[in-house]
Amino acid sequence: MTIALHHMPAIAAHHQPDRNFKYWIIAPAIFLLLAVGLFPLIYSLVVSFMRIDMMDTDTSFAGLYNYKQLFKDLRLWQSLLHTLIITAVALPLELLFGLAMAYLFLEKMPGRQIFVSLLVLPTIISPIVAGATWRLLLDNQYGPINQILGWFAGHRVNLLWTINPFLVYPAIIFCEIWQWTPFMFLILLAALSNVDKSQTEAAEIDGASFIRTFRYIVLPAIWPVMAIAILIRGLDLFRIFDIIWALTMGGPGTMTETISIYTYTMGFKQFETSYTAAIAFLVIAILTVVVTWAIRRMGLAK
Predict the structure, then answer these.
(1) In this structure, are residues 271 and 54 in contact, taking their beta carbons and an 8 Å threshold?
(2) Does the chain have fewer CB atoms within 10 Å around its N or its C terminus?
(3) Rounded CA separation 211/215 (Å)
(4) Does pLDDT of 14 surpass 70?
(5) What is the model's pTM?
(6) CB 186 within 8 A of CB 101
(7) pLDDT band at residue 17, thresholds of 50, 70 and 90?
């Protein structure tokens, strides 16, 4: 009996489960994520300090040469400006239209679910397909948009939507709003549905206007969700590529060339590999600063 009791702690220690077992289980997944995500990032950073292009593969250390060239590249800063213009116009309009649609469908109505399902359809379409479709719709000769406008005008309308410098931006922004306003609509509809109705009803009884009720009751309640939606769509608009590529390919000239299109052109058409890597890290630096500032301003950081 004494011998059995003497060996019991050793047996218990032998059968005690490994506390690190849970980490060993998730280690392969973490390693895979780091290999897929972190390795290309580090490799691109290394390449940005070289001089690799279509004509030469110079793997020697080039220092900050590519980063110095960024500040001399007028086309780069113009593409950033084009990106900011599209973002600054499309994002507020998507927010306003999405909020208006959310208020419209907040109350129960006949066929509400069917209408909501139909409104969401543009979001599930691939952006490149949506852009190609709108390019056909806006075509000068065969597109129905000019024909419909001609019916109202009483004469033939020849608007070059994707060529005219004064029309190309409205065409792009309209297509972007058409596709992504339903995204804002769904998020804001979910947020508005969770607002305490007793507070809004009490405000109405007290004679508060719709604007005051929205500002002091509804907006504080939905602001965390709205801020996340604004941040997601803002980042998505900053990397806009598909719709513009399908509509104009950055034209006329480079008038609608965004930072994503410019990076694609430099990397996959002109094969300026090291310079393209430097552009990518410039964009990462800009987005890091902007997102950090936005999160603090929106009160999302605790």
Answers:
(1) yes
(2) C
(3) 6
(4) no
(5) 0.86
(6) no
(7) low
